[in-house]
Amino acid sequence: MSVEYQTLPNGFSIPAIGYGTCPPQQGFIEAFEDALETGYRHIDTASFYRCEQIIGRILKKWFSAGKLKREDLFITSKYMPKPGEDQNVEDTMKKTLKELQTDYVDLYLVHLPLSDKENVEIWKKMEQQVDSGRAKYIGLSNFQPQQIDVVLKNCRIRPVCLQNQVHLYAQQKELQEYCKKNDIIIVCYTPLGAPGRENGDLLDIIYNETVKKVAEKYNKFPSQVALRFLIDKHLVPVPKSWNQKRIKENFDVFDFKLSEEDLKILEELDQNKTIGFPPIPSDDKIIK
């Protein structure tokens, strides 16, 4: 299946769907390999997720077997800022590269914002990662327009990406317009509203009757329509699943496009409704 890309005028290009990797609980290794077998080539991870070492081991196995080359992949990682502390961006990046067993990442993001002053200081260190060749591009995560403005006014290398929670119930239309105006691609985490989350903090996007009706028209699953909606809006969803069937379903979104009429119908589902970050499991539940 031919995978689409979202691109910017400066040449930045990112696969239009990614595979989310947080957190690495039971079944993660098998699921990650299922994702690679299915065709995912955009891998979204972070030092905070505590799974980069596992990903590195799996990728090394695939590279050694000749099933993949490093240039086949688009790998994103993230730097988690430390409030009130020295920001060891370079050391964290080097650890990430060591664990992933690669010389570079395609995209490196600031995971969360701090104060404006700290964000600018961190960004200058992020720029150094591009200078060194450890990152091809850099971007932001969970920042809002006023915080991005400060970075844009003080940057030497512009952010190409913003990762944020965007889905049918939280379409973030103003944020979309802001990013479009500033040549920033939005990558969407929890693009399906995290169905089945154990703590009950979920949204019913894939059970919504309107989504179901649109899906029937295209002979697709509701989850596929929810993901295609984002892609048709020039966004990049990063769904996460440990289930082989759903991993394949989430990837099978490149053989159809939604009509303008259906896009408008789905736009009406926006509720400005988001969910919190998923709880990170205790160490005894993290796969090593």
Q: How is this structure best described in words?
A:
The chain is α/β, with parallel strands linked by helices and 288 residues long. It contains ten helices and ten strands. The strands form two sheets. Strands 3-4-5-6-7-8-9-10 form an eight-stranded parallel β-sheet. A two-stranded antiparallel sheet has the order 1-2. Strand 7 (135-141), helix 5 and strand 8 form a beta-alpha-beta unit. Helix 1 (28-38) runs parallel beside helix 9. The radius of gyration is 18 Å and the shape is globular. The model has no long low-confidence stretch (mean pLDDT 92).
The secondary structure category is alpha/beta
Largest sheet: 8 strands, parallel
How is the largest sheet built, in terms of strand order?
3-4-5-6-7-8-9-10
Poorly predicted segments: none
- Percent helix, as a range, is 25-40%
Binned strand content? 5-15%
**Overall strand count:** 10
Oligomer designation: single chain
Note the gap between the termini: 32 Å
The backbone outline, from C-alpha atoms, is globular
**Cα Rg:** 18 Å
Number of helices: 10
Average pLDDT? 92
Order of helices and strands: EEEHEHEHEHEHEHEHHEHH
